[in-house]
Design brief:
The structure holds three protein chains of three kinds. By secondary structure, chain A is of the alpha/beta class. Chain A has one domain: TIM Barrel. Helices cover about 40% and strands about 15% of the residues of chain A. The longest helix of chain A is centred in the last third of the chain and has 27 residues. Chain A is globular, with a radius of gyration of 19 Å. Chain B is α/β, with parallel strands linked by helices. Chain B is built from 24 helices and 28 strands. Chain B has five domains: about 120 residues, no CATH class; about 140 residues, FAD/NAD(P)-binding domain (3-Layer(bba) Sandwich); about 140 residues, FAD/NAD(P)-binding domain (3-Layer(bba) Sandwich), CATH 3.50.50; about 55 residues, Alpha-Beta Plaits, CATH 3.30.70.20; about 110 residues, no CATH class. The N terminus of chain B is likely disordered. The relative contact order of chain B is 0.11. Chain B has a five-stranded parallel β-sheet, sandwiched between helices. Chain C is of the alpha/beta class. Chain C is about 30% helix and about 20% strand. In chain C, β6 and β7 form a beta hairpin. In chain C, α1 packs across α3. The model of chain C has no long low-confidence stretch (mean pLDDT about 90). Classes of the chains: A alpha/beta, B alpha/beta, C alpha/beta. At the A-C interface, α5 and α6 of A face α6 of C.
Chain lengths: ~325, ~650, ~240
Amino acid sequence: MKSGSNLEKVLDAGHFALTAELGPPNSASDEEVKHKMELLRGSADAFNITDCQTAVVRQSSISAAIMLKQGGMEPVMQMTTRDRNRIAIQADILGAAAFGIKNCLCIAGDHQSFSAAGRLNGHPGAKNVYDVDSIQLCAILKKMRDEGLQEGGDPIEEPPKLFIGAAWTPMGDPVDFRVARLAKKVAAGAQFIQTQGIYDVNQFAEVMKKVRNLGLHEKTAILAGVIVPKNAGMLRYMNASVAGVSVPAEMIKRFPRVKKDAPKEEKKAARLESQEIGKKISVELIEQVRDIEGVSGVHLQAIEWEKAVPGIVEAAGLLPRPQV
Amino acid sequence: MNIEQTENTAQVEMEICATCSAACPVHTSTREYVDLIAQGKYEQAFEKIREFNPFPTVCGLICHHPCEEACRRQNVDESVALRNLKRFAVEQALEYRKRLRKKAEITKDQTVGVLGAGPAGLTVASDCIKQGYAVTVYEALPRAGGMLACAIPKYRLPDEALQADIDDILALGIEVKTGMRVGKDITLDELKKKHDALVVAYGLSDSRSIPIENKDHQNVLLAIPFLRSAALGEPVEVKENVIVIGGGNVAVDVARTAARLGAKTVKMVCLENEEEIPAWDWECREALEEGISIIYRQGPTKVVVEKGEIKGLVTREVERVFDEEGRFSPTYFDDRLTTIEGQMVIITIGQMSDLGSLEGTDVKQDERGRLVFNASQMSTSDEGVFACGEVVTGPGSAIEAVASGHRAAKAVMGYLQTGGLQTITDEEVEEVGELPEDVIENVRRIQRLAMPTMSPEERKKSFAQFEFGYDEKQALQEARRCLACTGGAIVDEKKCESCLTCLRVCPFGVPAVDDVAVMTSDMCQACGLCAVECPAAAISIKRFSIGDVEDRVVALVNGSKKPVTKVEFICSQDAGSGQELQDRIEVLDGDVIAKLPVTCAARVTEVDMMKPFELGSDSVHVQQCKECRYRGADDRLFKRVERTRSILNAAGIDGNKLTVE
Amino acid sequence: MIVAESKPLAEVFGFIENYKRVLVLGCGECVTVCQSGGEKEVAVLAQALRLKAKTDGKEIEFLENTIRRQCEPEFVDPVLQDISDVDAIVSIACGVGVNFLAGRLGNVPVFPGVNTTFMGATVEHGIWAERCAGCGDCVLHLTGGICPIARCSKTILNGPCGGTNEGMCEISTEDNPVECGWALVVERMKALGTMDKLSEIVPPKDWSTSRDGGPRRMVREDLIIKKESPEEAKA
């Protein structure tokens, strides 16, 4: 037990863990975060706050994490290396720890060119930092926590208590290196892993075999990522454009098809039906990945649809969450 | 040889010579004159031909064209018809050459006497007078020209043709005294007093005979007197069946002349077989076409005379002509005899010089009756008396006589300047190498254009010229078959950055790039693509001057009386007339169009395409030929046009005003 | 080589449109090879500028010259001695050349005619790609020769990130395809049989040798030629 965070305790106790995601707003107000907090309260062991996901400016992950902590919910702070150098990163870790934030997901972060997608202007011309990568970041956190030293070697008065996490894309290109890279993350200090969204469970199960062969599932807690699909279009987009995500065709077929020129009521009905199907699929995925040996939990992401989370979790039989 | 150098052309380490030039006894700038013809610059081509050869008309008709035998095009399909092209250029310059006639300025006190007005003698005279020495030529016959006038039949070399060359030479101011025989009308001593140097250029004026029975019969003729009479228009009687003894070119001339004079059959009898026969193959072929028969491997033994008339010629079969060392040493089967029917025999087995006029002088002969001669100094045994031409070289062609004349002229003038004898060395020429296989593969095959010729039946009837010559379209087409050997890419090593562009764009795989690009002249086809693509402007093409297209655009547009509205660059590969090859202004539907022919449209650069707009044109067009012979050239051109269009647009000019087809 | 790309004509013209006599100066090395700044391109740019000047009704004389390298005093100074009546220079050398010229010219402004982009190699004739970022502390021995700084969009040293898609970087588009540098590294290390090296964690990089450490210099004490006055030399 390194940090004593709720997530760490749940996992340590051998429960099937559950994390969910909370997306911070594009706003200077705390209202939205507080609203989402209430939607999600009690439905997971810890809640990820994304850190300028796809490089789009949002309220800082750390500030939202503080709001959660003060509101009695456990946050998972996300830290990308895209926007901060090692100095700022370590300062932010110390600051977050001072507020009692323990869980930290270390990721490199999407390239800033993604911020200009769709109708957004974003900041594709921003200078990116990437002073360190995600693996080096795990090691920095570990060094701070276990050795009480900054990356540069200077001692820290009061070391932070951290539960270190990393992301993993099990089916990403080049596929035969992905497990080895997972091993690197673990060696660097990653205690829990949240994977990219999984839809092809069989494929994932194959990869998990290799993970088990290396014994990595015992060294780190793997939480399989489940992204709640709202409709077929979202699945198709992810299948085509998101690296490492492949969606079986049968899954897409489950969604209703509606013509472009269909009447409004029909479209609305289809939309609602899709949502239901999406939730159902999420439940099925949770149950399926739970059956895979080596999977210690699920990381549930309902993007800008936080209110769907409790229902899914309940239907998957994961409520109430264990008290540890 | 002449190579056009502009200030940007790199130093050429050694003058590598095209095989045609190297093979020519006077190293005519063959590739250059062919290129000039291809550009429609016929008069310049004529001047280029005459640079080293005062007998361009003669050679264009009768030269045995060693250049063609050496032409590298034969490795692709057939050699280029270089002689036919020479003739074409000469024919285009008939009036032009007259305007060029100018008396040479005499600047020296010393004078030169030339004995013999054949091609060798007239060449010496021409060279010496151009350097300022007064020259007098003494000729025994009533007209100048030597063998050219008196032995070459008129159907091969018409009078007007020979005269055109002689008139130009004499227009320099050379004094010719015809009907003057040395020894009879003037002595050698008198000549030595009159002139500071003499040149014996007698030629081989006499025919050799053979010691066979009845050789002195009145109807046993010798070749030269026979041909001379025919040439001078004297009446010559020819019997029904004529036998010509001999296998050389003169024998063929004799046979064909006899046929034209009315012989019903003419049979040539020679020692050699078909492969060995000394006459050129094309001459034999023409003779055979005209119905003359050639009897090989027979040696004459006696003329059969019955009742005072010739009945025929007895011959014995030849065993072999050359011995183990390749020397002429025929052996016979004396028991295998044949009799060939005929009423007239003409002996054409060789010529010899008539040196009787030199008996008793210091110009000595050896024990075999040949002039004592130092070939490297061109000098006889008498100081101040030189010699040249067939009298010292033995039988040779007209161009070889010209070459000999040039050497003698150098020797004479060296002697006159220094008072001593000079060693005349032959120009060292390094020849371009063999055409490599992979280049051959990439050269488009184009059939050689045959010379339009009179039918053999028609030919036999008269001494009319039987080869008609090329018309303009044919000449241009044939001239474009030339591979432009040694006219290709030169790299300025100071500028070359080994960027490899030339290597990548060359259709023939010529460049090798190490420290700098190296262009192997054996391979380069002078297409010019590398030069326009080179980003360092480090490549020039010998046969084009630097910036030629751009300069011509400026000259043509600025020189036009009416403002030019359109400039067209037109590939010259399909041009059928000299008119199409000129830079010119044409007016069409209100457009004043400046037309510039270019050798390969892909040589037109971005700057060439932009310049006309700067000079005030509204539009520019690049016209390709129907099928470019350079692989990849059209792709490069299209991409360059696209790029230039976007530059034009950026400069505020509508890019669509630049078109390409 | 250093790769540079021509600036838009309108932009370059904007720099010099109010001058009267402009020298377009090319360089015989890298920019010649990448077809942006050699003698040929000097001619093309000068002609394009002439056309633009004509269209815009400006009377400007454009001179053309190219020297071996614009980053050496011995090549640059002779040109500069000769330009007493030039009132502006457009240099189509790489940025180094422009800087160098500007440093040696007093009151004649120097304008860049190209955008210097990267240090790269030829992919094929007409296509060049970035290969080196000049980080000053080469790590190519760790990655089989494929540079994670120059060829990974995120300069990740323990790659690849999760964004690789069929061997292409997540920022790849049809117009601008970018290979995933790390996919290439993995492939290469596989071929070399050194995949196990990739399991070693590469620690954070010392970026001070890169531009992050400030403008850099290289000094070879052994090569510096002693400057002596003639008196000192005799002594």
